[in-house]
Amino acid sequence: FMKRRRRWSRYPPGPVSLPFIGTMLCIDFNKPHHSFNQLHKKFGNIFNLQNCWTNMVVVNGYKAVKEALVHRSEDFADRPYFPMYEHLGYGEKSEGIVVARYGHAWKELRKFTLSTLRNFGMGKKSLEERVTEEAGFLCAAVNAEGGHPFDLRFLVNNAVCNVICTTIYGERFDYGDETFKKLLHLFENSLSEEAGFLPQLLNVVPILLRIPGVPQKVFRGQKAFMDFIDVLIEKHMKTWNPAEIRDFTDAFLKEMEKGKEAEKSGFNYNNLRLVTADLFSAGSETTSTTLRWALLYMLLHPEIQSKVQAEIDKVIGREQSPTMKDQVNMPYTSAVIHETQRWGDIAPIGLPHMTYRDTELQGFFIPKGTTIITNLSSVLKDEAVWEKPNEFYPEHFLDANGQFVKPEAFLPFSAGRRVCLGEQLARMELFIFFTTLLQKFTFVLPKDQPRPREDGCFALTNSPYPFLVQAIPR
Ligand code: HEM
Fold this sequence. Notes:
CATH 1.10.630.10, binds protoporphyrin IX containing FE, four-stranded mixed sheet, alpha+beta, 17 helices, single chain
């Protein structure tokens, strides 16, 4: 008993907790990273919160986040349970990957997904060829805007989603396709349903989800998005031929045929829906939002845009399609892309983790089952690491000789066992889409438009407010 008490006396500090709601009133759930940054200043790198009766610990700054995610990787590898996803089919036997508990099924599914994405290339084309091909379609669509002001959000989303869609379901959607527009709309709605106070409350007081009609009403967008995924899979099943693996879904179906062992590793039909939905949701909004930030910064910093274009002209020229091999010869462009990810800060609080066992962090005791928030924003803007943390400054990624360097605190994809599974794909998409667009166009702010806002709006990701651009062919 004394030992237990001593350990708990080393539990991290935090704001005063009220009966029932705990510390929920201390957090602005529409901008949680802002609240965390304020509490960070008051309580230090590691502080506790209490969402009703759920214990949470927020980890801030490069040193503490690295210690948790890298040095004590397994201790922090679990995920909390999210009752709010049950109505979509998430449950004990099928958890997908993103919210899966740390264990055998998660490991097997993650391994399978990584190797399928990496080795396979899917079908006859490599993943890189697919991205390059899609970049061509994107440029044609941008060109069709005829140099008039337009919001490039839809086109960029369409391009990025097409990469994921062809890889998973073997299907791409033409730009302007009405069904696809509907899908993106549903997806955006489903993201915003997860932000704010109410979903947090439903997660920590799941009994409220048992009130008839509540999940259907609160998470209407999520359900509609999942129904859409179901239609894509059902369509796919009709043409399934075990002798020919066309895409990720086929590879998963083939794995399912392996019987009991495969079943234990999570290869079941429900998980096929959930894993592909996971890849779709984790892999589309994140990458397309980053690209939109990149183009926004080019509007705001035309001199940086010109320097990137000069490097593209020198290394690739105006006609040749950019390839990943060009990247090593393009330190400035790489620096601009990395700085976009740092300053754009698109996943400011990453995804929640949970402690897998009792553990210690920087001298504090954190018991098993504690929800952990890694404040990635505090790492990407850590004043102890970055020269100009609150400015867009590509030189953060260049040494004195103009060569590309990547500081260790560059963690937009997080780190450790749950590090982003799509990091390689995302980096490929960012490089190829960005260089292809700037090779073909100069992006300018339309004359009558106000300067776009540089702060973001938060709905799980931190994305730019809508803005208009003109794409002038080069
Ligand atoms: C997880 C960032 C693109 C698939 C994550 C996490 C972050 C992240 C911060 C949470 C890691 C953690 O829990 O500590 C990003 C960013 C992207 C991006 C910034 C683009 C710029 C992608 C893409 C895919 C993807 C393209 C899919 C192909 C996933 C998956 C997870 C994940 C499946 C869950 C991993 C697990 O729990 O084991 N990502 N991501 N992401 N990401 Fe990404």
